[in-house]
Request: fold
Amino acid sequence: MTQMHNPPHPGEVLREWLSEISVTDAAQRLGVTRAALSRVLNGAAGVSADMDLRLAKALGTTPGLWYGMQADYDLWHAQRQFRAKVRRITTPPAETADAA
Reply:
């Protein structure tokens, strides 16, 4: 999978989509609070699966578009900050006799 360099927060993209409508009106149409939508638009909160479905229905986008943008954004930032020491797992776990 090709990864975008420094992908934008989906709230930045959404702000452009909603440029002709007030945050209050958009929140009412989406069925969320103005504060919840504002947090997404300002990058203080991510797009949840529920919000993705609301946006898809309201804006006519494909379900998963906004959630996918959020995942790309989160993964890019996590990769830049990841410092954990992890050892590779090279063999599959042994099957147990008790496994059903």
